[in-house]
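Input record, target 12 of the design panel.
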């Protein structure tokens, strides 16, 4: 349909002929008539990436063809396979149109109608030329596809096999387009990127694992994934920015093999680090006998130290520095003679920190923490440790009194 408008101005008049096309779906374009469908005389396509802003911009621009008319226009962008993930995030995609009218470039206008063809990695924006555009005379335009990569937590362009990312763009009049025809150098823009990283991380360093550990720790390449395989199961984690990892595991028996590997974001896997679960030892050595010297009993109560003031207990702990433990001691019965004479239940004492505890009730005689060395030797100051309190009215002369001490070494929180 053709409409003719006559606009008079003084003695002169101007005839503006506007052709309005009837709208219909056009068949798939062939290579021959793709140029007839073009909205621009020469298609120009640029691509640029601003790493600081995190935005990737694909720009279609050029002079508008002379026979442009009312109707829908479409701006088609074909993304490279390396950026296929973008089509799943429409919230990170925006589009603007800038039109040059009467020699003046207008402000960018957002395009509200954006269609995403996920299987083909295609983004299509639709706009329209209105009567004002045609009367005032549109001479050129610029259509920009703006992708906010920072919003997707992507801070660099992905690598490609040849170090180049290829984009295609086409500005068209209304109609359908065979996407394969777009992949021509006339409509292509490229941008350099990195080559794929094919270097695997170095094998991780795995700290010692014991049969008491419920966490595996170690170090390696920062921001990689860690995989821990054991006879019980597979456990996964991630290394932090400092290159440390910490992964929870259940208890494992001594001798079980643990295999640890790292994988970077490109999928490169490190050589495995293999370690075995170490059986922990927490043991102690106590004297087989603790003797008290023969004593002349005075007519008053007296406290008697052990015969050997340097007696000691030795603790061996292989669980590592910082492990804690405690030793308990309990007299199983009061001191007594072979023929049944018995001393008071409070006769055998343990003294520490100026306090006295009857050993018949059981007492914690030492609380310790393993240092750098696995072995800890425990001794007591003078007037501390195990002591004997004798009442002259209880003890029988020339008799030997004895009892059994039960020692216990415990893991302590």
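The sequence produced for target 12 reads:
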């Amino acid at each position: 349909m053709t409409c003719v408008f006559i606009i008079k101005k003084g003695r002169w008049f101007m005839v503006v002929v506007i052709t309005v096309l009837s709208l219909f779906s056009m068949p798939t374009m062939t290579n021959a008539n793709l140029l007839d469908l073009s909205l621009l005389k020469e298609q120009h396509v640029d691509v640029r990436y601003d790493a600081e802003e995190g935005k990737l911009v694909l720009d279609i621009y050029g002079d508008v063809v002379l026979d442009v008319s009312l109707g829908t226009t479409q701006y088609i962008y074909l993304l490279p396979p390396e950026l296929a993930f973008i089509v799943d995030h429409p919230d990170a995609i925006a589009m603007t149109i800038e039109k040059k009218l009467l020699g003046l470039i207008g402000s960018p206008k957002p395009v509200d109608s954006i269609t995403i063809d996920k299987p083909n990695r295609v983004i299509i924006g639709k706009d329209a030329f209105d009567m004002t555009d045609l009367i005032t005379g549109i001479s050129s335009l610029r259509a920009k596809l703006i992708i906010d990569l920072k919003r997707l937590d992507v801070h660099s362009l992905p690598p490609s096999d040849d170090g180049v990312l290829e984009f295609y763009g086409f500005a068209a009049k209304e109609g359908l387009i065979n996407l394969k025809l777009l992949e021509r150098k006339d409509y292509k823009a490229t941008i350099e990127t990195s080559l794929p990283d094919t270097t695997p991380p170095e094998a991780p360093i795995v700290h010692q694992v014991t049969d008491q550990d419920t966490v595996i720790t170690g170090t390696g390449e920062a921001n990689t994934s860690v995989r821990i395989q054991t006879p019980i199961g597979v456990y996964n984690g991630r290394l932090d920015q400092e290159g440390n990892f910490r992964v929870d595991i259940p208890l494992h028996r001594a001798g079980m093999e643990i295999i640890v590997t790292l994988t970077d974001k490109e999928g490169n896997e490190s050589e495995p680090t293999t370690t075995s679960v170490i059986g922990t030892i927490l043991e102690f050595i106590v004297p087989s006998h603790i003797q008290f010297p023969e004593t002349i009993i005075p007519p008053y109560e007296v406290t008697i130290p052990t015969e050997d003031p340097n007696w000691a207990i030795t603790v061996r702990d292989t669980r590592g520095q910082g492990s804690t433990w405690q030793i308990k001691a309990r007299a199983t019965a009061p001191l007594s003679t072979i023929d049944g004479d018995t001393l008071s239940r409070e006769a055998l004492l343990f003294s520490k920190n100026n306090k006295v505890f009857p050993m018949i009730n059981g007492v914690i005689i030492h609380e310790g923490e393993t240092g750098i060395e696995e072995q800890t030797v425990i001794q007591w100051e003078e007037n501390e440790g195990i002591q004997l309190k004798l009442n002259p009215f209880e003890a029988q002369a020339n008799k030997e009194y004895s009892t059994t001490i039960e020692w216990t070494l415990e893991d302590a929180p």
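The CA atoms of residues 354 and 409 lie 23 Å apart.
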